[in-house]
Amino acid sequence: MSGPNGDLGVPVEAGAEGEDDGFGEAEYAAINSMLDQINSCLDHLEEKNDHLHARLQELLESNRQTRLEFQQQLGEAPSDASP
């Protein structure tokens, strides 16, 4: 797991023998782990977003119904009856 500043916790040695791109198995594993954590966080945020969206839709419909009831009590014609 990385630190709060994104450090991998694995030192990267410049010019290591036998590595063409400068990254070894440990670095790739650390990057994979971080990507998995990010993916998990994004999944969680998406679930929360979906839940909030559903709750806001319920609130919107409730407010529409309440407004219509008030308008009916006042004897006014509804100005916006569309969903």
Automatic annotation (TrEMBL):
<dbReference type="InterPro" id="IPR005374">
    <property type="entry name" value="BBLN_eukaryota"/>
</dbReference>
<dbReference type="Pfam" id="PF03670">
    <property type="entry name" value="UPF0184"/>
</dbReference>
<feature type="region of interest" description="Disordered">
    <location>
        <begin position="1"/>
        <end position="24"/>
    </location>
</feature>
<protein>
    <recommendedName>
        <fullName>Bublin coiled-coil protein</fullName>
    </recommendedName>
</protein>
